[in-house]
């Protein structure tokens, strides 16, 4: 094996998340600052206690004053911190840490996730208003528009849950916001918040109705009545 290959292998390898490589600009770094941060990262991976400014200057073929300047920029941008640590002998030793960079990356990723979730919810709200106007066959009035925002902002019903309540009202052929509100209140009393819970509630209700009709049929000679949809306007009276 040639000396060149031996030098290549003995230099070691550095592993870094692709997020840093592709999103460093979103963290506020330019190309030069990121190149400097990589040098510090390599030293951190190799167990350096303090940044070797001279080595970085040699590796990057850069004046050491520029190295100090760029490292100071990284400190200001919370990508690296330099601090003093008192050892067992009581002497202070300068050290560095890249934890601020990892924390900054985590905050950025959380913000991206939050923005994506907000964008998703905004899309669901837009869809909800479109469905309401489609089913009612007209634009919503100002009061109806406020009622929907009350469900969303004050009652904290999800757009998906309101959409399910709308479908329930349409199945019962009741095109009325008060009726939809009754459905949502009934579900809230039963702690129903998801599509799966709504489906289970509907199955349980239908099963009870069928059983009740079967019981009535056994006591009479009348034919088995048709299964009717649930009347949500009677929900409050039944709960009293």
TrEMBL record:
What InterPro entries does the record tag this protein with? DnaB/C_C (IPR006343), DnaD (IPR053162), DnaD-like_sf (IPR034829), DnaD_N (IPR053843), WH-like_DNA-bd_sf (IPR036388), WH_DNA-bd_sf (IPR036390)
Q: Where is the composition biased (Polar residues)?
A: 211-222
Occurrences of domain DnaB/C C-terminal (ranges): 131-200
Which ranges carry the DnaD N-terminal domain? Answer: 17-115
SUPFAM superfamilies hit by this protein? DnaD domain-like (SSF158499), Winged helix' DNA-binding domain (SSF46785)
Which residues lie within the region annotated Disordered? 197-240
Identify its protein family.
Answer: Belongs to the DnaB/DnaD family.
Concerning NCBIfam families, the annotation shows: DnaD_dom
This protein is called DnaD domain protein
Lineage of this protein's species? Bacteria, Bacillati, Bacillota, Bacilli, Lactobacillales
